[in-house]
Specification:
It is a single chain. This protein has about 270 residues and is α+β, with helices and mostly antiparallel strands. Helix content is about 25%, strand content about 25%. It contains four helices and eight strands; from the N terminus they run H-E-E-H-H-E-E-E-H-E-E-E. The chain has helices at about 1-20, 70-85, 100-120, 185-195; strands spanning about 30-40, 50-60, 130-135, 140-150, 160-165, 225, 230-235, 250-255. It has a five-stranded mixed sheet, with helices on both faces. Strand 3 (about 130-135) and strand 4 (about 140-150) form a beta hairpin. Helix 2 runs parallel beside helix 3. The radius of gyration is 20 Å and the shape is flat.
């Protein structure tokens, strides 16, 4: 399940970034910094070890001042994502300077929490963590991709992915309802492709098929990405179905959306 989930996240992220066309912005000109950091976590018994990793991207802000409001907002969201998965606190405070050391320090926080937790337990769990975040620039929007897989004990690890389009220059998050002139009609189209992708009978109740849609009413995920051939939607594990079904994704071709789509952040 872990391999399948990470593979889905990787394919989802890669398609959302690499297959797009239109007006990309050079990352060097956009003041973006990308890198990777890692720490080894050794069990208290010294019998096993694992690698804690973080692939990151953020805007370099000099003297704590970003070039635009959306850059500050993106950095805040990156910090919220990282801290919630390393210190388990979403509002742990904005670092004095956001730089490469921040991400290494957050991995160290996670490692120390793991050591403390294992010291207090008769059962030793080898905590694991893989963090990924990236930023893709367009003329009027940026796309923020976050994904994580972690294991902190229990029957299995868990992970999730999230995507957000932020407007320039305000940094406001683009909501699903803003994309279409008729969200209800697009939702009906989406359910058709959701059932096709997951090989579900057309007229059978989704709840009877094991899905958790409220009142058995299908809805589109807020995790959406404009890919090359269509609009992709991604549901995290446990979001609409039990763990055994895992993460779910599907795509609506642009040809089905032509008369409904009113906002396209790629342009």
């Amino acid at each position: 399940m872990r391999f399948l989930f990470i593979s889905l996240l990787f394919l989802y992220a890669c398609r959302s970034v690499n297959e797009r066309e239109y007006q990309h912005i050079d990352k060097n000109k956009a003041n973006l910094v990308a890198g990777k950091t890692a720490l080894v976590f050794v069990s208290n018994s010294l019998s096993d070890s694992t690698l804690l990793t973080c692939d990151y991207m953020f805007y370099k802000c000099f003297d704590q001042q970003c070039d635009a409001t959306y850059q500050k907002k993106a950095n805040d969201l990156v910090i919220e994502f990282v801290s919630s998965n390393t210190s388990f606190e979403k509002n742990s405070g904005y670092p004095e300077i956001l730089d490469e050391n921040y991400f290494k320090n957050q991995l160290e926080n996670f490692r120390q929490l793991a050591k403390t937790e294992n010291s207090a337990s008769i059962f030793e769990n080898l905590w694991q963590l893989e963090l990924h975040n990236s930023i893709d620039e367009f003329k009027n929007y940026i796309l923020l991709n976050n994904s994580v897989w972690s294991f902190t004990g229990g029957a299995h690890g868990n992970g999730y992915a999230e995507t957000m389009y932020l407007r320039k220059p305000s940094g406001e998050i683009l909501e699903l309802k803003e994309l279409f002139n008729d969200l209800s009609a697009v939702t009906k189209i989406g359910e058709k492709y959701f059932r096709l992708k997951n090989e579900l009978p057309e007229n059978e109740s989704l709840s009877e098929l094991g899905y958790w849609f409220t009142d058995d009413s299908f809805y589109l995920s807020n995790n959406f990405t404009f890919a090359q051939n269509g609009l992709q939607f991604f549901y995290n594990t446990y979001e609409i179905a039990p763990y055994v079904i895992g993460a779910v994704e599907f795509e609506i071709p642009y040809t089905d959306l032509e008369k409904y789509l009113i906002v396209d952040p790629r342009k």
